[in-house]
Write a structure and sequence with these properties.
about 325 residues; alpha/beta; Elongation Factor Tu (Ef-tu), domain 3; 2 domains; six-stranded parallel β-sheet
Length: about 325
């Protein structure tokens, strides 16, 4: 997949394209279905598959006080989109000039002019243009006048409710990481550099690795069964998202305890995948009681991974 970061960098597509547009934060199951449909339609038509997204998130520019927490970094989003078969990802810098394009200008200048779209595929809640004045009806009307094919895909629904980035954030805020995983089609994860902590674990309980997440969205405060990636290796782990209330009141941190690991960590970055919520974060009477609880968390986590392995092997 080729990534283009400005309009004038888009190559000429003389055969045209099938395009889609969205923020694609999280690249959840709904996004994946849409992107794969675009790729399949483009292949059938013998043209390029193009996805258009924005950086930063439009609400960051238009109403920063209402901006959502991001589920994925731009790099992660690009990687996930590439897996769906898209040929070109156009990452438009979202500026106020772009925000002031009317629906008709956006269709003529961007969809028809820049990406030479023959078809555009969007979801039912798609809005575009200045002050989101355009919707799917607007797009269909413009398409009919300008010779642009328009296809509206229905939402992907799980348990009767549409899959959306907002829904993923909502279940993560409740600590429901398994539900988030079902909506995303993969475990929710945080990635970023390993940072120096306060040394509390080394002194009082068990040694942990502290993560500075690049993503803004975290699961709700609590203790989780996780997998942690260091380099190319995945390790079983237990992760605490919280404030260390046994030792005082601190800012929220993400710290992971690698199960059965002994050695030196040389990697500078790590990724944590959240698989199951074990419990709430609790204020204990002293560090010794907390250490016993961490050992119990580790035992339960190992039991979780043994059960998972049996299920994967089957009967």
């Amino acid at each position: 997949m080729q990534i283009i970061r400005e309009l004038r960098g888009m190559p000429a597509l003389p055969q045209g394209s099938v395009a889609t547009i969205g923020n694609f934060d999280g690249v959840h199951l709904g996004h994946q279905q849409l992107l794969r449909h675009v790729a399949a339609r483009a292949k059938h038509e013998g043209v390029a598959a193009v996805a258009i997204t924005f950086d930063p998130h439009p609400i960051r520019v238009l109403a920063p006080d209402r901006a959502p927490k991001l589920l994925t970094t731009l790099d992660h989003r690009q990687s996930l989109i590439a897996r769906q078969g898209i040929d070109f990802l156009l990452v438009l810098p979202f500026t106020r000039d772009l925000a002031h394009l009317g629906p008709g200008e956006f269709v003529r200048d961007v969809l028809l002019g820049i990406v030479q779209a023959r078809f555009v595929v969007v979801g039912p809640n798609f809005r575009f243009g200045y002050r989101q004045a355009g919707d799917t009806n607007t797009l269909a009307g413009l398409g009919g006048k300008l010779g642009l094919g328009v296809e509206i895909l229905p939402n992907v629904r799980i348990r009767g409710e549409a899959v959306s980035s907002t829904r993923v954030r909502r279940v993560l805020d409740a600590g429901r990481v398994q539900t988030a995983g079902r909506l995303l089609g993969r475990p929710f994860s945080n990635s970023g550099p390993i940072v120096t902590g306060l040394g509390i674990g080394h002194r009082h309980t068990v040694p942990t690795l502290n993560l500075a997440p690049a993503e803004e969205q975290l699961p709700n405060i609590g203790v989780y069964v996780t997998r942690t990636r260091l380099g190319e290796a995945w390790m079983h782990s237990v992760t605490n998202v919280g404030r260390k209330p046994t030792f005082g009141e601190y800012a929220v941190t993400v710290e992971t305890y690698l199960l059965g690991f002994a050695g030196e960590v040389r990697e500078k970055d790590m990724t944590i995948e959240y698989l199951f919520r074990l419990r709430d974060e609790i204020k204990f009477q002293n560090p010794a009681i907390l250490k016993v609880q961490i050992q119990e968390d580790a035992r339960r986590s190992l039991k979780f991974f043994r059960l998972l392995e049996r299920l994967r092997r089957g009967p």
